Amino acid sequence: MTVYLQPDQFDDPPEPFRTGTAGHVWLGEGGEFELETRVRISANSTHALLGHGVVSALNRLPLMGELGDGQDVVVPQSVLVDAAHVLYEADRKTYGGVWEFDAGVDHSGHSCRVRIDNREYQRGLLRLTDLLNSASRVGYAAWIRI
Question: Number of folded domains in the chain?
């Protein structure tokens, strides 16, 4: 049996489906930092980012950490433009197809899959791109957790 993520579960999915978050990073003069959450990444968009290879492409950039294991990863100010470019390219590749990705196995041993809602994914890409661009404009870093 295969379990599919339903659209009404995009924001609060059951295990093993995942969501993500992102925001700005403020660095203080003494080396302290503060994370501000600005974007919630739905389960639909999170699994699309993973399945389409966007997370892998972002991980090829000099990030402070590695995306994909649920940890906060800093996107340094010097990398924001390149990271936004990866997201722009991802948006161009979503048109005209029906995409479906494996999400793991649930507690009952059922295979779990996500049939991607491309519009929702494109909105997620736009929100992430806007976040990276706004951080770049004001001289902050960004962080992403996927």
Answer: 1
pTM: 0.92
> pLDDT averaged over consecutive 10-residue blocks of the chain (146 residues)?
94 96 86 83 97 97 97 96 96 83 95 95 96 95 96
CATH number of the domain enclosing 107: 3.30.70
Residue range of the domain that includes 122: 2-145
**Exposed, middle or buried, 65 (CB in 10 Å: 0-12/13-18/19+)?**
middle
